[in-house]
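Predict structure. Chain length: 180.
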Amino acid sequence: MILTVAITILTAMLLYAEGRLWWCKLGDYAVYVNEAWNSSHTSQHLFDPYSFSHILHGVSFFWLADVIFSRFSVSWRFFIAILVESTWEIFENSSFIIEKYRANTASLDYFGDSILNSVGDVLACAIGFWIALKLGWWRSLTFFLLVESFLLLWIRDSFLLNIVMLIYPLDSIKEWQTLA
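Prediction complete.
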């Protein structure tokens, strides 16, 4: 547990060193915002609709760690999941990924996460890991599919769709997302 907290603090420090802001640049101190598209608040508060996709990161990392590191204790697998999520948060806030989001998704005004949003994303991942641990493989798969479906209906985006749009962007999906 101490290592997971330490890696999260290190992630926050690295994001600060990269010039990321601690909180919403508009000065809104809401903990959660319900805005997903074309908003200067998305990814600037502790939690937002994309927090649910980070919960699914945790579920996915639970599955991967359970397969790849099955001989490790749950504590070590949890640490690995948080390490991977923290690494993603640093990469996600690089100019390279920010520009890919702007070019390939409907997030035209995306300018990266605030530091506390990244910390919230790591926390959401941790929650997803523990949900998957408690539910087990098959029930966590059902949970994953339900959350994916909910996100597609609610914000026209999801964990899996996000991966598709970063790796192989499709104009038809981008157009569908802009209808939101």
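Summary: Helices lie at 2-17, 51-68, 74-92, 95-104, 115-155, 159-167, 171-178.
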